[in-house]
Amino acid sequence: MPDSMKPLVLVVDDTPKNLQVLGKTLYEFGYNVAIANSGRQALDSIRKEKPDLILLDIQMPEMDGFEVCTALKESLETREIPIIFLTAMTESSSVIKGLELGAVDYITKPFNTAELSARVATHLEIKQSREKLSELNAMKDKFFRIIAHDLRNPFVGIIGLSENINKNLANPDKIDLNKILKYNQIIHSSAISAASLLENLLEWAKSQSGNLELNPVSLSLSQLFTKNLELISGLALKKEITIENHLVDDTIFADELLINTILRNLLSNAVKFTSKGGKVSFSSKQTGNMMEISIQDTGLGIDSKNIDKIFRIDSKFTSLGTDKEKGSGLGLLLCKEFIEKMGGKIWLTSELGKGTIFSFTIPTTTKEKSDEA
Fold it and tell me: What is the pLDDT of residue 211?
């Protein structure tokens, strides 16, 4: 397992020998290890990088383990980190106090290596299971929220407007063609919005059930953009938005369904959040065996305090487009998941009132060819 994916265990003890032994033992078990020789140093370390689990000595000068535990459990940012107390004390009152403060377990010193390994592994597994369950619950909530609101609204509009058209046509002597045309345009726009959202929902459901197969092939990036620009050309024309193409060396190695979903969502978002007369541009540049693709708009931009919410499944952050177009936030979640599934990454930069740039990377060659090179 790459070091970046290994769980991080923080060991807090004021005895250098204990830090050395515990650090070496945990490293041999396959964990990343951070150490702190005091309670204050532990809190400073956690503020910089949150560990997956903490081994915390009770008896320390200045700030003991109980005080450190209390501080961690009072913070929303750290309260879910599992804490195992390290103690030479065997009195039941100390053990009970530690558990009452929120610790998940305790290990007595001198510790048994097999016991240490088993307890650490068990509590890391429990933590991962809780996080997965929380993520699944968030997915379920988002799924039903989208069905209940975002998917229902377009159909309510379609039904209401089609009824108005029928009423207008029922009286041939008073037919208002301009009104019918206006209603029909809104119905068409609502139908496209509903169809796009439904397509995203189906693809998301397939990915979450594990039934999404990855079939990467060599593809022309310029042809992919041309195909997906056709889907947004009507709205871009209506808003008088200029489209600029700055693509370069454009062969990528990607799953066609996934990359089309990514481009469809990012391009439609760019047009959605750009005002009349604005500009949407896209570009690419090759770095090693990866192609970096950027889609930039001159639209509303995103407040810096909301940028971290963009790719979070548990976030309810959505905003209206410049023509009051609604969104669910699902499209960007799909983009992130699909890009990472193909071995790339996605990020964004934005300035409120000036626009946003979404950038992502996609391989330009197979892994086998890259290894051969």
Answer: 62
pLDDT digits (tens, 9 = 90+) for 58-92: 988 889 999 999 999 999 889 999 999 988 766 66
Contact between 329 and 143 under an 8 Å Cβ cutoff? The reply is no
Phi, psi dihedral angles at 283 (to 5 degrees)? -150, 170
20: which 2 tokens? 């050395």
291 bridge partner residues: 286, 362
Spatial CB neighbours of 196, under 8 Å, sequence gap ≥ 6:
264, 268
| Dmax (CA) of the chain | 96
Closest CA to 198 of 341, 333, 340, 331: 331
- Cα–Cα distances in Å, from 313 out to 134, 236, 293, 333, 370? 10, 29, 24, 7, 33
CB neighbours of residue 197 within 10 Å: 21
Q: What is the residue type of 104?
A: V
**Which has the closest alpha carbon to 327: 272, 262, 267, 257?**
272
CA distances from 117 to 22, 26, 55, 152 (A): 11, 8, 12, 51
pLDDT digits (tens, 9 = 90+) for 9-21: 999 999 999 899 8
Q: What is the three-state SS of 119-156?
A: HHHHHHHHHHHHHHHHHHHHHHHHHHHHHHHHCHHHHH
Helix axes 65-73, 39-48, angle to 10 degrees: 30
As a whole number of angstroms, the distance between CA 188 and CA 298 comes to 26
Instruction: Give the number of other CB atoms < 10 A from CB of residue 34.
Output: 18
CA dist list (Å): 278 to 101, 153, 322, 350: 56, 28, 11, 16
Best CA proximity match to 287, nearest among 341, 328, 233, 248: 248
* 3-class DSSP string for 225-256: HHHHHHHHHHHHHHCCCEEEEECCCCEEEEEH
* Cα-based angle 222, 232, 324 (whole degrees, multiple of 5): 145
